[in-house]
## 1
Amino acid sequence: MKVCVIGTGYVGLVTGVCLGEIGHNVICVDNDEKKIKMLKNSIMPIYEPGLENLVKKNTQSGNLSFTTQIGNAILSQDIIFICVGTPPLPDGSADLRFVEEVAKEIGRNLNSYKIIINKSTVPIGSGDWVSMIINDSVATGNGIDNGANHSGNKNAAAIFDVVSNPEFLREGTAIYDTFFPDRIVLGSASQKAIDLMIKLYEKVINRRFEQIDSLPDSKGTKNIPLVKTDLVSAEMIKYAANSFLATKISYINEIANICEKAGADILKVAKGIGLDSRIGARFLNAGIGWGGSCFPKDVSALTKIAAEYGITTQLLNSAINVNNQQRLKMVQKAQETLKIIKGKTIGVLGISFKPNTDDTRDAPAITIMNNLANLGAKVKAYDPIVKESPESLNQKVILCFDTEEIFSGSDLIILATEWEEFIGLDYEKLGALMRDKNFIDGRNFLSKEKMQSLGFKYSGIGI
């Protein structure tokens, strides 16, 4: 099938590459000429394990191409994915400027029946809103009188259907999540569009794709559950899923804080409740809270959507508050450990919001480092992938390129991101470089007993 993916961020690029991998003809579009030039040369603008190899493979096979010419791509393809960013506005609601621009561009270049897929996370009701924009753009942009409802358009050249197909990709495992999703959600009023989307994903649904390096063998595994619903319900599924997971993390962090005061061990508590099949063990890792590009903006956006209907989201508001306080708790722990922050040297292991990605958007580590720097500490940071200082990071923070530099002369080390690399460090050797062997494990990633046996004054979250 002929696919156009508009937007080459995490979602768009991974979606386009993986659709190319299962045999579709895919054109990925972006208005960033520098990014498109990089992709044409198989240089990745983001870090995602396995992505570079799949881009090289599918550009060489001809299944995948990149362009800045959005009009030509829309004209030539039948299935159009909208994968542009929907960043949060100052009030927490989603910024839909880029979605609107793309919808207008689609309307101006509508030459035959198209399926328009909202892959971007968009507020409830955005499917109908996108339809309206496309219709208006068709009517004013190319002289076609499209009528009030696209499904009733008399001109076959301007008929289209909108589908909500939310993504549930985790940065760091996005390729795996594309080929082995927990479910595929399709929302539309058009059965024709739903049927074509099922055909598009047929190889994924039925696990009939060629073996991909680093991924499990798909043979013998069960088919992917398919959720067919209306536009609004599909849009709500995305927000509800991310908000639930964020709330689950805030919940376990609040329990961890109680454990610290009461003398309980959050690791044992989380294991004990996670074995309950009604709860499950995932997202019960206490730490410094959630961040990244999805949870913060999706939870905030859902609270704003609810407010439009006069609903106060007390649970979600509390989840946000707990998450914000969890970052401040790390600064408080540093104060309790060092007594005085000003003039002390603090090393931070990890900058990205989670391992296996270079994404630093709303990373807890950055909030923590900025606060420590503002309190007068000399802050040093090391990350296996992030090698340039993010714009949101206090410019006083020193980026280091090896762990020895982080530990050397430090009064305190904070582990902020659970990179696998940090498990295998020679902490006995590195600890000898420190001025004082204080260690705060913000992810409960290392063994408390082992670190203490090496002479570290170790503290975690809830243990």
## 2
Amino acid sequence: MILDLFRLDGKTAIVTGASRGLGQGMAVALAEAGTDVALLSTNKSNLQQTAELIAKYNRKALQISCDVTKKEDIKNTIDSVMKEFGRIDILVNNAGIQRRAPAEEFTDEDWDIVMDTNLKSVFRLCRDVGNIMLKQGSGKIINIASLLSFSGGITVPAYTASKGGVAQLTKAFANEWASKNIQVNAIAPGYFDTDNTEALVNDPVRNRQISERIPAGRWGNPNDMKGAVVFLASSASDYVNGHILMVDGGWMAR
């Protein structure tokens, strides 16, 4: 049955930035498909709601406090997941932050924290979890890119650079690992109503301009990511490598 290809029973996933928004939605989607999930956030207490949602599907939710900008935190997280589950089948690199300022005023400090969170952490997690997947002989890595992987944006130079890097890093890992039965792909969300886009949502002019350009006629919500993440985490995508899947309501087609 074709639907069996989308089942994830017995799999184990790591989802970074899993306390709310897109991360929470994707973590719950993986649990619905049969996955036990290690939930990562800088504040472990923020993960309780996500864990409770996952429990409804009789799946395990391991809550881990992890600052993805810290190499030691990543190492300790991977050790904890391996101790609890014995393997890692799926990695979703979702953690990310945003800083806004005109390009001529953008600070080094904001540049560094955005790049460390959005790009360097993705490299480290891909590399370190990928090493485990190589030993296992299989794995799925899903990075979260952005529409700004393809365009420049306004007042977000660090975010744009980091998400452009995520797209290229996805392709680089895919080139090396596709032959090893590890599929590395990315999802590029469009305009979603989340904490990261709060400034845009609350700006009546920009909100209207963005809404008018989206062919679907609305901003996305976390449920709109569920199908994409389950597809890329499942056997249904075994011949998909280095792809950036846009979930944008048609924004890029306009």
## 3
Amino acid sequence: MTRFFSQRFESGTVTATTSRDTAVEGLRGCAALAVLYGHLTASMATVDPIYVPGKIWGHMEAAVMAVLLFFILSGYVIGLTNRQPATQNSIGDYLRRRAVRLLPIYVVAVTFGWLVSRTASWRALIGNLLLLQNNVPDSPFHIPLLSCNGNLWSLHYEVIYYLGFILVLLWRPPISATLGLVASVGMLGVVVPGFSLWVAWLACGAVFWLAGLAIAWRLPQGSDNQTGPWPSVLLLSLVFWKLQILHFVLQRLGFGIVWLPGVTFDFFDSLPVLFWLFLIVTRRQVPWLRWVEIGCWFYVAAYVAWRFRHGMLPWRGEIVPNAGLAVLALALRGWTPSLAFWRVLSPLGTISYALYALASPVQYFVRGLLPSLAGTAWSYSLRVVIDVLLSFALAWFFECWLQPRLKKLFQPRILVVPT
């Protein structure tokens, strides 16, 4: 581990393929489903105008943690597909590919969300189209998120990381120094009164993005390792999210964190378990993975034991499902099934971006249909079915039909000179 963090962000030292990894695509698809599930089961009237689902559905919700996984995935994919030296041509090609991948679907998602919102201003529309949206009060742009497409908060982060990656290509900074500096900036938003939350939260998200980039550039991949304890780690990651350990500790120390859509410092304790899960799915071979496993389990066990010892269990309504998830994760530690499960989910990964960007305005659009049909579990269930079908249909159209044509249209023209 020490050698890994002492290395620089140099590409080309680790053999890795840039071809499509179906297991990674499956992980991306699972993350998109987690976000969709979180919005459809939220304990508020966002699906049905009147009916609200029971809180029991929220025990499996992990939408924000799925977005953190998206950041790791983003850094990882950018690392795999951009290993060439930084030149004017390579940077221009990188920006072109990012624009073609991001902007067409994004423009549709912003416009759709703005139309459904109805009360959103023209300034909000233009600001969101320019990827300036952020609800943090000290954002220099003061562009609010669209109320009917709050999912797009993460795209503001992504575009800044895409631009920041150019500096990584040019300077090749050491991994340890880069992650340490960025994490320190994220911590300043908690411990230093008046420090810019916009800067601090961007730095917190960058830690996850850079972790994905480091995996792509620094860790070797083992083609023969096709199994792993991913069911246990997946459940344990959900336990991490539900316990919110670092958030609780910071509150006890007097550092209150009010969450707006964004990446806050108290999410940092989710990084090791997500890192562990990602290493398994991407088949990365590291000798210190065992220490990551021990650290994750010790972290949860120590926290639960400490709260039990001091009688601090006001979360009794959630102790049963959380404890059940932890016990099940522990029981499955020795089970190392095939990664084929993630490859089965790979079709979801191919439409994940459009699904993530369009599902929320679809949900609010369907919510406004048939206002007289509302207020029951049946009306809620019907709207969920319509939401899912319409979201998947639109995602397939934009990702599988439109996107390939746009890539072909905007790919560089190669002039062949006859000899």
